[in-house]
Amino acid sequence: MAMVGLYRRVLPSPPAIDFASSEGKKLFIEAIQSGTMEGFYRLISYFQTQSEPAYCGLATLSMVLNALSIDPGRKWKGPWRWFDESMLDCCEPLEKVKEKGISFGKLVCLAHCAGAKVEAFRTNQSTIDDFRKYVVRCSTSDDCHVISSYHRGAFKQTGSGHFSPIGGYHAEKDMALILDVARFKYPPHWVPLTLLWEAMDNVDGTTGQHRGFMLISRPHREPGLLYTLSCKHESWVGIAKYLMDDVPLLMKSEDVKDVKKVVSVVFTSLPSNFGEFIKWIAEVRRREDGNQNLSPEENGRLALKEEVLKQVQETALFKHVAAFLSTVNSCCRNTLGLSIESNLPDIVARVCCQGAEILDGKSGSLEGYCCQETCVKCLKANGDKPVTLVSGTVVNGNSEQGIDVLVPSCQTCQTCCGSTPNNCVAIYPAGNDVLTALLLALPPETWYGIKDEKLLKEMHTLVDTKNLPTLLQEEVLHLRRQLHLLKKCQENKVDEDLAAPLF
Description:
- The protein folds into 2 domains: about 15-215, Alpha-Beta Complex (Cathepsin B, Chain A); about 225-435, no CATH class.
- The protein has helices at about 20-35, 40-45, 55-65, 95-100, 105-115, 130-140, 195-200, 235-255, 260-270, 295-315, 315-325, 330-335, 345-360, 430-440, 455-465, 470-490; strands at about 15-20, 115-120, 145-150, 160-170, 175-180, 190, 205, 210, 210-215, 225-230, 280, 285, 370-380, 385-395, 400-405.
- It is α+β, with helices and mostly antiparallel strands.
- β7 and β8 form a beta hairpin.
- α11 (about 315-325) crosses α14.
């Protein structure tokens, strides 16, 4: 029986020039000398091959996000936070992308949702001179990268629509280097920039829109320092629909007279799997990986997380949420599916088990993992304010390992290993601040249906992001942006409007 298969393709040259050819190497050296290959080094460090024939967009975006060192805020595999094609599914189901690819607009949506700064242009919204200007800008620095959406036919290549990043530019020859993520098919290659523009100036038959290009760069501060929406979980779409569509209707239909009733209406109607939707990010490490000293990076991240948490707990809305949760019985708490315990060791015991599981390279059920003891310590180094380190001893069968959980630090406490943890006056993430962050992230129009004018005014004051401190404001607006983008995807409007949501 014969087996049909393909091993690569011959790169049509001209018009393209193979990057590894003598001429391609010469162009590369000349471009380096001209200073227009600065973005190449980071891109090539994270160059990847798309894992599916239709994953060119996902591979290109994950490559660029990793090159920019943007933290996903979500785990990839084991304990590692890393962008992979499988992580980019909040705007389009992966099975659908695998079958049909992804549109330009939805890839822009994914980039926004991942926390990147994005400027996107279709060719009918830009000019070749502007495109050249952007290519030069990103080729002479390593803090932005250009992703091109083009039709392969212009280069006499097989296939149709394709995405790849631009790795550099040769000014004298006016040629761009395409780092083709379909490396099983074509190698990286130089093409005339004018021809690349022609390849982008093509209408995608699926959307009826022109293709184009986007500039991806780091935001001035990474969002998702403390809280994250679990876009990857199957509950994402349904719960987002509840928050964006159903809650505004509940505000219209329910006779709400005070803030407590508003909070009650929102949270007592939550879908049962809500606990998988929004979480706080806990960082773990093996105790034997080092001593109890924190690295400058760990110290910096914890300090920022602590500040965000402090700012949440200082909002007036937090007090209302905390008061509501204090009246909720344990049965309803389980329905909410949130960690609203006030005992830090109880929270950390669960996190230690999860940490041990992922550090063992496993995922799924925590069955068999048991945290036998926890020890809360406040560490202070080099004159910095204390940070909280909670150590747990996790047993799984005959194996035992020590896990450290890095928690937003105490306000005031003494080292309390071996003593009652309640001696520490600590602030740490729990259900009340998580729910507060989520309420703040809902769009302002969520509350327009409240009939009581005095209550409506009070709610607007409580959720007004303009009065929030900068760190918390950016954290909340990132969560709101994710909700907004998903809703836009559900309504199939992402290809009509490429701009980032403005709040």
